[in-house]
Amino acid sequence: MEKPAETSVPVADFIAKRWSPRALDETATVSWDQLRAILEAARWAASSGNTQPARYLVGLRGDETYQKIFDALSDGNKRWAHRASALLVAVMVTRNEKGDIPHAEYGLGLAGQNLVLEAINQGLVAHQMGGFDPAAIQRDFELPSDAVPRVAIAVGTPAAPEVLGDERSVSREVAPRKRIPLSEFAFTGSWGKSAF
Fold it and tell me: Which residue, among 15, 30, 72, 34, has the nearest Cα to 158 in the 3D structure?
């Protein structure tokens, strides 16, 4: 069977719209219903053997949890994340009553993607960040040793890129999204042999 030529194939709108903006509206709020929806989406993610390793710390702007998460962010992320309506930390539980959870990080990643896509469905955006201090989260939230903070997430409503202030940040915000071509992404027969 002959392979089709690489073309742009349409995907679901909420997938196409997913991105990680830094320009957020500091006056916007996220409702508890919206938070519940994005967390429900995360909760229903697939996981190895239904082990469900994902857990979330959830703070709304102005509350103590939000502040603790914000304080743990890297300086670069603090420059823009203070405008987020909610700050979360995705935590990976590595053990349950049966022992070590297999593929816990993969399960957390699946939950995270569900959360981000449901945020789009709710008219919000979510920006995941590796730039934070996991030890501070572990300490400040008194996490058990088998609960590992893996990523911080800013949730909010997009704003004009100019809220970021400096020219470099604004141009980064409006730069076109880039993805490697499908020919370099999916292989068949042997590594590097494009499936498309």
Answer: 30
